[in-house]
Amino acid sequence: MAKRYEPGEPEPEPGREPEGMDLVHLLREVTVRLDLAGARFAGRNGLHPTDLRALVSLLDAARAGAESTPGRLGERLGLNSAGTTALVDRLERLGLIRRVRDTRDRRRVLLEVDERAIALGQSFFGPLIDRTIDLLATFEAGEQAAIRRFLSGVRDAAGEE
């Protein structure tokens, strides 16, 4: 959300961007480049961009210790039931995920990412992740905390409607 100026507060001069817009533009450029990298990965592996988002979502859930169901996946991706079923069917056919019965409730289906999908993603994104970790290591703990706070705030702001 753009900064709101209070009465009496000086607004930026016409033609000048508010302070911090350079970071907004840089963040947008990073987002575009990451999106293009994801599209290259998807294209090379016969995936739709939504397939990649689904795999990332499932991996993030697993990392957080959360179970994934088709309903939760569809909700996270903004898909209806039919779209979610088609997505899960496609990823399962490709051998990237599997449906497993919940051991506590046999009526419920859980989704798991196959190790082949993890290896495939690591082969493509691993070097980028390694370079990013190396870059982060050049920042002090306080700087990393500021970066984390900023990125978390942007994530939360992007989730607001």
TrEMBL record:
A GO molecular-function annotation: DNA-binding transcription factor activity
InterPro entries: HTH_MarR-typ (IPR000835), MarR/SlyA-like (IPR039422), WH-like_DNA-bd_sf (IPR036388), WH_DNA-bd_sf (IPR036390)
PANTHER family: TRANSCRIPTIONAL REGULATOR, MARR FAMILY (PTHR33164), TRANSCRIPTIONAL REGULATORY PROTEIN (PTHR33164:SF106)
Annotated ranges, domain HTH marR-type: 20-156
GO terms classed as biological process: response to stress
Protein name per the record: Transcriptional regulator
